[in-house]
Amino acid sequence: MSEEQEASRREVLKSGLALGGLAATAGMPFWSKLALAQGEELVPFTDVPETFSAPPVTAGGFHFLDTRYIDSFYTPNDDFYIVQHYNQPEIAADDYRLRITGLVDRTLELTLAALKNRDKFEIDAGFECGGNRQEMYHGLIGNAKWGGVRLSDLLNDAGVKNSGIEVVFYGADKGIENIRQIDIEQAFGRSMHIDDAMRSDIMVAYEMNGVPLPLYHGAPVRLIVPGWYGIANVKWLENIHVQDRRYMGRFMARDYVTLSKIDVGGVVRWDERSVTRIQLKSSIVRVTRRDGSHRVTGFVLNDGTPLKSIEISIDGGLWQEAKIDAESTKYSWKLFYLDWNDASPGEHTLVSRVTDINGQVQATAEEMPEKPTRWENYAQFPRTVLIS
Ligand SMILES: Nc1nc2c(c(=O)[nH]1)N[C@H]1C(S)=C(S)[C@@H](COP(=O)(O)O)O[C@H]1N2
Ligand SMILES: [Mo]
Which domains does the chain have, with CATH numbers? Predict the structure, then answer.
């Protein structure tokens, strides 16, 4: 490994300690406080219909978490949300090849065994689908420890030519797309600029929470782009292709494109851009009661920018600082709680807001840009509960 790579690896490790200045939890590990204790019960949300439930995991299906029951730092693999737009290809590990092609000095073709023989690293990454939303209580979310190899190591071995500016990632799953009235079979594809692709923390992953990547999460190999929305994490990855111009496939240029009214150089314009970095977001996921005292729990996701505070306001009152899991890592989700001491019987409205070290504050619904597309739902999310 070059000195430069070693330095950037150290930088990543160091910046993993992303929680400068936050209220830490002393004593017990944060996580041991999350599982429901003996005699602790969920307080019902009144914004959740009684009929609400998360769909079970099924082949080809769509699955999201019932966020009221988040009780571990790592989401169990069999409850991690599942989104795929085409099929779920089954690839025999022995037949698997990862090909690195295009504007490179040497085309690489790697078996799974060859990938596993290379330098391995692990990283925590929590992410959500760009289409995650309030109707499912933000359940298209999960946090896992991923294991695999550095994308930058593979690209350096292949030798990216100067003309190679765009890196495209193709999955083995395919579907028919109608493009200008023509039906065409396309593989799932996503891309990024070479400068993003050379980040030392992007992973070609073959493990999820210590076991081989499960089928629904892209077996045998997927991409993990920490800090970006789920769409970037191409499952069933079989080809990494370097080219000299932008890739304009459906999931970069037509779908997962956020349309919003923003200031562009002093002019308000309707802007269209591909969903990439995770926006600063928090949400309350549950309220529990034990021996008459209450606790409010939630999560934060963002692009890895260190956080300054996470606060909760009850019935429009003062913002109170919540405790955040101090062992969270740069790109993991960050779980937090607040002990709510004086909860009175009746209905209450609770809302959380997160602030990062740059002073950016999670927007209220009113402060959000006009944004008619369904992607990137990060506004403050008021929840209502009934205290009996
Ligand atoms: N090959 C492939 N990769 C894919 C997708 C897909 O349809 N095909 N869906 C993407 C989307 S939209 C999301 S949100 C994440 C979901 O990853 P998960 O199912 O492991 O949670 O995978 C991404 N990677
Ligand atoms: Mo997604």
Answer: 3-62+276-387 (2.60.40.650), 73-273 (3.90.420.10)
DSSP 164-195: --EEEEEEEEEEEEEETTEEEEEEEEEEEEHH
Q: Ligand 1 in contact with 82 (CB < 6 A)?
A: yes
Distances from the Cα of 350 to the Cα of 47, 289, 347, angstroms: 11, 15, 10
CA–centroid distance, 130 to ligand 2, in Å, is 5
- What are 258's two structure tokens? 């956020």
* Predicted TM-score (pTM) of this structure: 0.92
Whose C-alpha lies nearest to ligand 1, atom 20? 217
84 lines ligand 1 (CB under 6 A): yes
pLDDT tens sequence across 188-200? 999 999 999 999 9
Q: Can you tell me which atom of ligand 1 is nearest the CA of 251?
A: 12
pLDDT single digits (tens) 227-286: 999 999 999 999 999 999 999 999 999 999 999 999 999 999 999 999 999 999 999 999
- Do 191 and 241 touch, CB atoms closer than 8 A? no
